Amino acid sequence: MRTRYDVFRTIRKIVLSLAIFGVVISALVSGLVLNVALGLPLAVALTFGVIVSPTDPVSVVNVLKRTKAPDRLTTILETEAYFNDATAVILYPIAISLSFNPLQSATLFAYTLGGGVLVGLAVSGIAELLYRMITEPLAETYFTIAVMFGSFALAESLGASGLVAVAIAGLYMGNRTMRIAMSEETRITMTKFWEVVTFMVTSFAFLLLGLKADASMLGASVLFVIAAFLVILLARVLSVYPIVGIARALGEKIPSSWTRILAGAGLRGVISVALALSLPEGYPYRETLVAMTFGVALLSLIVQGEFLQIYLKKSRL
Question: What is the DSSP letter of 10?
Fold first, then answer.
């Protein structure tokens, strides 16, 4: 909701490229390297690559806000994280099926992604008409819960991406509905409400991450965790630099100093942990993959996040 479309429009090519192709490249690089370096079966290694490829929006944005990074840079990383979560979730069932049909998988991916966009737009358009009939700020704020949950539920029931639908609905509401169909009082009330909800849900998610972490399991897999973390950093670099170069060739103005930040800002978090814990019982190397994912998330948040913050302060963007 708080993402301004006029800013997003200037960087949409790089955002969507990072969110879709960046995840695919990162997953492939991670999977292939871990297959060779750790001896994991290729299908299992690729599944792990899909699990840890999406970035965490909350962690990245918190670091950027503390260092007062430019609005366009923050928007790139934030919106990339929202959309690449959806990409990973779409690729996840394809990966754990341990089979791959290029045409069938590409068709499913296109339907899931495109369907999410259409559902998000349709629900938001209907909601905008209904908002014109509501004049009470608290009722309007409460209605946004129905809009967001409804867009997610409808998309999922149709086999499309609920995460994409919610992201589109949020962009639509924040850039159109809130401006033309709501009073100033409602906009203030709604903004404060979702700030509180976001803080509570995010806190619970990271608390759950901590409660689910098994220290003994992490200790037994420490070498796998370190190797996976280094591979993820490499995969992020190999996915970001070509995409940024292509985006520049297509006319998007991305400063060279931002490329290094984009490559280093791929913090992992809750979505990766959720995907790892969702692996079916009996899946090959399940416990190892869960331990690696937890370890990568913790190292990413603690080590990578701190180095990113130090670099941002020194670069004086």
Answer: G
Q: pLDDT for 217-226, tens place per residue?
A: 777 788 999 9
Q: What pLDDT shows up at residue 97?
A: 79
d(CA 75, CA 83): 12
Task: Tell me the fold of 5-315.
Answer: Na+/H+ antiporter like fold (1.20.1530)
**Residue 117, pLDDT above cutoff 90:** yes
CB atoms within 10 A of CB 287: 13
Could you list the beta-strand ranges (E) of the chain. Answer: none
CA distance 40 to 276: 16
DSSP three-state, residue 125:
helix
Q: Is 296 in contact with 233 (CB distance < 8 Å)?
A: no
- Give the pTM: 0.83
In this structure, how many other beta carbons lie within 10 angstroms of the beta carbon of residue 149?
A: 12
Among residues 198, 234, 194, 240, which one has the least CA distance to residue 76? 240
